[in-house]
Amino acid sequence: MKVATGRQIPDQIPGRREVRPYAGPFAFVPTGVKAAPPLSMVRPGEKKVVDSLREAIRLAGLKDGMTISFHHHLRFGDHVINMVLDTIAEMGIKDLTFTATGHHPVPESFIKHMEDGVITRIEHAVLVDQLGVAVARGLLKEPVTIRSHGGRPRAIEAGELPIDVAFIAAPTADTYGNLNGIDGPSHCGSLGYAVADAQYAKCVVAVTDNLVPYPLRYISIPQTNVDYVVPVSKIGDPTKIATGAIRKTSNPRDILIAQQIIKVMEASGLVQPRFSFQAGTGGVSLAVTQFLTEIMQQRDIRGSFLMGGITGSTVGLLEKGLFDIIFDVQSFDLDAVASLGRNPNHCEVSASFYANPHNKGCVVNLLDVVILSALEVDTKFNVNVLTGSDGVMRTGPGGHQDTAAGSKLTIIGTPLLHGRIPAIVDDVVTVVTPGETVDVVVTEYGVAVNPLRQDLIDRMKDARLPLASIEDLKLKAEKLAGKPKAPEFTDQIVGVVEYRDGSVIDVVRQPRSWVDR
Amino acid sequence: MTANGRGRIRRSMLFVPGNNPSMIQTCPIYGADSIILDLEDSVAVSQKDAARRLVVHAILELDFGGAEIAVRINSPLTEEGQKDIETLMEAAPSVFVVPKVESAEEILDLDSKLSAVPIGLLPILETPKGVLHGEEIASSCPRVWALSFGAEDYATAMGVERTRAGRELFTARSLVAMQAKASGVAALDTVFADVNDEEGLRNDTKEAISLGFEGKYAISPRQVGIINDLFTPQPAEIEKAKQILETYRSGVERGIGAIALDGRMIDAPVVQRAERVLALAQAAGLLGGGME
Amino acid sequence: MNVVRNAQAGTLESSDALVIVAPGKPGSGLHIEINSIVEEQFGDQIRRVVEETIDRLGIRDVRITIQDRGALDYCLRARLEAALNRASVVD
Prior knowledge:
Radius of gyration of chain A: 22 Å
Shape of chain A: globular
Number of strands of chain B: 10
Radius of gyration of chain B: 20 Å
Number of helices of chain A: 14
Distance between the termini of chain A: 31 Å
Helix content of chain A: 25-40%
Shape of chain B: globular
Strand order of the largest sheet of chain B: 1-2-3-4-5-6-7-8
Structural class of chain A: alpha/beta
Oligomer: heterotrimer
Largest sheet of chain B: 8 strands, parallel, barrel
Distance between the termini of chain B: 24 Å
Strand content of chain B: 5-15%
Number of strands of chain A: 27
Largest sheet of chain A: 8 strands, mixed
Order of helices and strands of chain B: EHEHEHEHEHHEHHEHEHHEEH
């Protein structure tokens, strides 16, 4: 069948009950009621602290075939995922479905657990390092489902992603299961991505290296959602969790792209009092944030809220009084962690609050401008933030689909080439974010506005921006780098890309070059 | 080509290390009027041969947009400089930037080597001797399109410290600008070495403009925009220049001998200045027309 | 051009390539080994550039190893020529 971007997807996909094709960013209207965790009871005098992970897993009732979930706030410093998987493997439990909220480390043992049949399905994870390759090799029986930051809590709340046991790495926990990420040696700031897992999982196990007496002063995930607390010596490597301040770029190309993005924002007329803004943590985004500070100070503009991956530079905007509020689903550096702990205008929010399209209103709907990056953009403005140009899944969609759909102005900032690989192409390998939600593509060789946005084109023309058609940019990229050989695929589907509303927007097939490797 | 290279707008001339492919292939995006692929100071002695091959292929195969392509060769008095000249002739860049020129003979010698190949020359005066011979160097041959000043080597040769204010350079800079003008070629100013000091770059560029320089070398892409902006005329100047040229043209059409605007005579130098203002405005994309 | 000794040119920086050449036995022909971060997408193209360059310079028996960091064609040609020049005596 055909999705609204024009792509063909199969009528049936292994392991998936229903294949509903993507029909437009807000075409699908949900019905029915939310899923719910089972009722439970804790009597007075009963304790939640459990001595060992093994014991907690036993008490949680984990069995073959169940689903376990993890969050990624400790990023590449996380020890909990592997600690839990190793213990489960030792206990001989098999055939589990794994789901995580985002990027996490993938050591050799992780792949071995897949080869040994401990993990046999992945329901959303970010396939970094060797994990993407393992999936490309066809190590899983069923395709991996890929969801956005808003799409994952939506799926949990809709009952499409039922979780049996959620393991929550907790930088600080009290003895009755209140958790936060702002205190403790492995502090990571916000725990926003773990909230839906904590609310909807049948059983919730917190793993902490900073167990404190009851009650905790700042609560991110409350005792009402947590069954067991397991103290361990170390939940992570702090040098890889929230690293020191993320440094601003000195790459002149990124600065040039950022300057053009600022011009696009100004020309759009959206940089006004009460303006709201989201940018990422890459070099271009950080430079945009810096230039935006200067402009808002010059023009004496005060914005309303900031969102997204929060860094010291975002915190700087709040502290200079240029914005009223930060909504923080994930803190990226120690400045952000510290600010969350002390500044009441720096608010920790859940992924559902941030980006879930099927609740009573998420924040992305109120966003004026978002700055996003891309691996590839095609001449229909469709964006790929998932597969490398060799067809292997290497990263994740994050909030890309969500913010693009919600914001008034979606700007993709990307160099024309990533190394030798063109970023502007005829057709992206995988459509993650549909072109109809993308407004402007800014490269160092010119600015392309989506023809659907004639209003923006008119504004950009008046602002002397170096406008180019997206086709021109594609040709320029090909002229510089040559045309890369398109990857070849087998018929086997290894990934299903959900749109944030639960429809299927594309599938990822197995790259032929990885068969039998 | 050799003749009209003199009138070309060169507000910013960006140096790009000749052995660095990443910088060479991204340099056209910064809006420099000229790009100087450097074989001299930014290339290690052991890599001169490799840099020559890279620069040749870059010129032959890459698209540098509207920018003028120049190559800074090693001094023609050195063996490396001779190899540069020999090798680069096949790629025929628009210009050779020639370092440490001290006499007209050096230029004439180079001119004869280039024979029919239409490559212009931009000598850099960066020694006391070179600065004092600016006029004979500039007027030695029609290939010399501009004179430029190089502060670092000059200061070393004089045995003086560089300061942020740059008083130690004042006389030499003035002399270079003056000798260029006396010989009817453009004057181009030295690089500003501290790439992180934007305010210093602004002040230094304003100083160069006040001394009569028409362009400035840039050592980092981040300097190009600032330099271009400062060399770009203000809207009022552009309007005035348009008026002058209009009045002048209609006066010539009607056969009027002495043309005046607002009580001021419009003579040849006034017309030339107005034409230059419009050329600069055109280079900055301020005269409408295409968006590119 | 006649390759008589081992030589190399280029770097392992991004957008560059390190090209290593070594003389081959008479009649051994052209041996190319490519190790590239974009091998899947541009491996054939890189090979073509090498073969064309070797052909143009009239070189027969040589071993060429390329460690490519995403170099564009112009750069590959330049690095190859520089390495071959360094490895050769001109006939």
